Amino acid sequence: YKYIPGKPFPKSVAQVRAVVAHLASAHARQVAHGDIRGFNMVFSAKAPTESKLIDWDLAGKAGEKRYPGQYSYVPDGVRHPKARGGAVMEMEHDCYSLSEFLLKFTPSSQSHEDEQRWVECLEALKLKGTASCLELLSAMDPRTALTMQSRELRMAFHGHDIGSD
Q: Treating both helix axes as pointing N-terminal to C-terminal, what angle do 13-28 and 130-138 enclose, rounded to 10 degrees?
């Protein structure tokens, strides 16, 4: 992959769509990432549609590969309840973790319709997978900006107040 200068939080719907599409491509090949969390995503600071899912060292065949023995808590994400050391990796674990990460963000447009689509997208990701989420994201304006929902979340996620950067 080429280097992308950026941060571990999305600035737009287009950037989220790119990460979900990247994960969907892996899932189409029955590959589970196994470590979806904030610091394993890079969202470009300059290109509004450029983002990558990184750190594929745990990835493996869904339904076969097992999580390492010390696998559990991470400070920048939420694991699926069944994603524990020794457990078999599943694609639904990736979708669950990505959905939980994205819950920290909300469309900054004041449109109730955008907010509703965003919530539906995250629910679809968690319950139905990447294809359903991509379909709902495609109904949203890709330029729609995203913001973290609260100062407390910004502080917890980054250790300092990042403001609206």
A: 150
Given a contact cutoff of 8 angstroms between Cβ atoms, the answer to whether 72 and 79 are in contact is yes
pTM of the full structure: 0.86
Phi, psi of 120 (to 5 degrees): -60, -40
**Structural tokens at position 157:** 């996620």
Question: Nearest-CA neighbor of 93 among 82, 104, 85?
Answer: 82
The residues pairing with 6 across neighbouring beta strands, listed in sequence order, are 44
Return contacts of 81-88, CB within 8 angstroms, 24+ apart: 83/34, 88/63, 88/64
Q: Which residues contact 57 (CB under 8 A, 6 or more apart)?
A: 35
Tokens linked to 104: 């920290």
**Residue 97 corresponds to which tokens in the numbers above?**
């973790």
The DSSP call for residue 46 is S
Please check whether residue 13 is in contact with residue 144, taking contact to mean a CB–CB distance below 8 angstroms.
Answer: yes
Q: Give 89-107 pLDDT, tens digit per residue.
A: 999 999 999 999 999 898 9
Average pLDDT value for residue range 119-134: 93
pLDDT above 90 for 131? yes
